[in-house]
Design goal:
174 residues; mainly alpha; Death Domain, Fas; 2 domains; two-stranded antiparallel ribbon; 9 helices; 2% strand; elongated; Death_dom
Length: 174
């Protein structure tokens, strides 16, 4: 049998000893490390050339919003109370009153985020955008939608890190 392996560089390997060293245990191993390394490089090149690979795509519209990005993206929101009541899942006026006692606007958004995820565990950025539109905050809704539908729009390195490392569970408001 004759086997042929081709890499993106156009180099062809037709050596049956090479194939035996990869496929069959106990095959020739004279160039095993070099051949394995070469194969790994070729496979990585093919994967990268496929265009389907993003190192860190960032938040997407149906993703669960992280606390940091939720507070950061909603920072421009002046009147947050109507927005909170428009969020799907059941934020109540009592919740709003409790959240209102938090010190800064960032802490209020963080508390709102935690409470919202408690009452709506399937929350997504799409819900945030729809609630903003319902409250006639169309410009902010459009800005956030751009950020979560186009991973390169208006994001910094900190956004990348937060999007990839946030996996905290919501805690009750105290």
């Amino acid at each position: 049998n004759c086997y042929q392996v081709q890499c993106t560089t156009g180099v062809r390997v037709t050596d049956t000893n090479y194939l035996q060293s990869i496929v069959l245990p106990g095959g020739s191993s004279s160039n095993l490390i070099y051949n394995d390394l070469y194969l790994i490089v070729c496979l990585r090149m093919l994967l990268l050339l496929s265009g389907d690979v993003e190192l860190n795509p960032g938040p997407m519209i149906d993703d669960w919003p992280s606390s940091l990005l939720f507070a950061k993206y909603l920072e421009p929101l002046v009147d947050w109370k109507p927005f909170a009541l428009c969020l799907p899942g059941g934020i109540t006026q009592l919740d709003v009153n409790i959240i209102e006692t938090k010190g800064s606007s960032y802490l209020r958004m963080e508390a709102l985020h935690k409470r919202w995820l408690q009452v709506n565990p399937t929350a997504s950025w799409r819900d945030v955008i729809n609630a903003l539109r319902q409250c006639k905050e169309n410009e902010l809704a459009r800005t956030i939608e751009d950020k979560v539908t186009d991973p390169t729009a208006g994001r910094s390195t900190n956004d990348d890190m937060e999007a990839s490392t946030s996996s905290t569970n919501p805690r009750p408001i105290t």
